[in-house]
């Protein structure tokens, strides 16, 4: 069997006992910004101890049963629908609780791996749980099956799937007692629809937005920051800028003053200054690009 720089398909699996699947990808040679080093499923997870950690980022999740993991004096429980992401070199040990523990693991690296995770708000040891019916629940197993049958020798498809997997951790994972982003967005859905329909009303402010959901202004901003990384009013301004760009490109005879009024600005100079600050060009300069 040919051994290429992408995947040794089936070779590692042939050496493993029943109930195990494992694949190694050699994408590091291809200089991808984010790549999977290995991925596997263990139907009978054994105890593992790594005083020096693992050289790559290491994701471990429970598929069935229950396990535990300890790292630097901190103990983590791993029942079903939970997972842990460890940074490279993080000392750890783990094992099963009870009679069985079925796990899925992914190890990955890449020159942009740290920056990508940082942009998603992922750092240090991340312990997450998720709802059993969400996209994240079966994503790892689907990725394993994809790699098992992937004919792509470039590693680009696996890298793209890994990035999606990380975004699903961000979207559906709950950590530190906080709700997941998907739950927050669902909670905000009525207000987001209200904003889409009333962005042109200059009288909309934080008070009106909070009243639309029947919550406090402070809690409203907490939900928006957890979901979008910005306040509710900043999100409204972003929405107005998006609508302004759509108007200016679809209706070229609209003046800048008319556009400003249609997207909720009482003062055209404020609109121009806000547009330039967020988009890097004036509205007139933006329109010339299209």
Automatic annotation (TrEMBL):
Keyword Transcription among record annotations: yes
SUPFAM superfamilies to which the protein is assigned, alphabetical: Homeodomain-like, Regulatory protein AraC
UniProt key word Kinase: no
Domain HTH araC/xylS-type, residue spans: 189-289
PROSITE patterns recorded: HTH_ARAC_FAMILY_1, HTH_ARAC_FAMILY_2
InterPro entries: AraC-bd, Homeodomain-like_sf, HTH-like, HTH_AraC, HTH_AraC-typ_CS, Tscrpt_reg_AraC-type_HTH
Annotated keywords: DNA-binding, Transcription, Transcription regulation
Source taxon at top rank: Bacteria
PANTHER family, per the entry: ARAC-FAMILY TRANSCRIPTIONAL REGULATOR (PTHR43280), HTH-TYPE TRANSCRIPTIONAL REGULATOR EXSA (PTHR43280:SF2)
Name recorded for this polypeptide: AraC family transcriptional regulator
UniProt lineage: Bacteria, Bacillati, Bacillota, Bacilli, Bacillales
């Amino acid at each position: 069997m040919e051994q290429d720089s992408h995947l040794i398909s089936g070779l590692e699996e042939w050496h493993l006992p029943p109930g195990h699947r494992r694949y190694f990808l050699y994408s590091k040679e291809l200089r991808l910004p984010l790549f999977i080093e290995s991925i596997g499923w263990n139907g009978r997870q054994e105890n593992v101890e790594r005083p020096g950690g693992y050289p790559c980022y290491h994701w471990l999740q429970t598929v069935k049963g229950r396990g535990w993991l300890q790292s630097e004096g901190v103990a983590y429980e791993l029942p079903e629908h939970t997972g842990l992401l460890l940074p490279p070199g993080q000392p750890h040990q783990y094992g099963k609780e009870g009679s069985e523990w079925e796990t899925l693991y992914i190890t990955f690296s890449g020159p942009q791996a740290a920056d990508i995770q940082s942009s998603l708000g992922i750092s240090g040891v991340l312990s997450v749980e998720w709802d059993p019916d969400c996209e994240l629940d079966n994503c790892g197993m689907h990725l394993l099956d994809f790699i098992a049958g992937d004919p792509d020798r470039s590693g680009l498809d696996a890298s793209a799937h890994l990035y999606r997997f990380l975004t699903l951790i961000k979207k559906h994972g709950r950590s530190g007692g906080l709700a997941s982003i998907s739950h927050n967005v669902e909670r905000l859905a009525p207000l987001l629809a209200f904003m889409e329909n009333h962005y042109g009303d200059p009288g909309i402010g934080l008070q009106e937005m909070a009243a639309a959901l029947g919550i406090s202004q402070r809690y409203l901003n907490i939900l928006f920051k957890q979901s979008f990384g910005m306040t509710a009013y900043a999100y409204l301004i972003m929405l107005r800028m998006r609508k302004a760009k759509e108007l200016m490109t679809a209706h070229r005879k609209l003046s800048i003053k008319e556009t400003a009024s249609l997207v909720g600005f009482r003062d055209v100079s404020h609109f121009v200054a806000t547009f330039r600050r967020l988009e890097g060009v004036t509205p007139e300069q933006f329109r010339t690009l299209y």
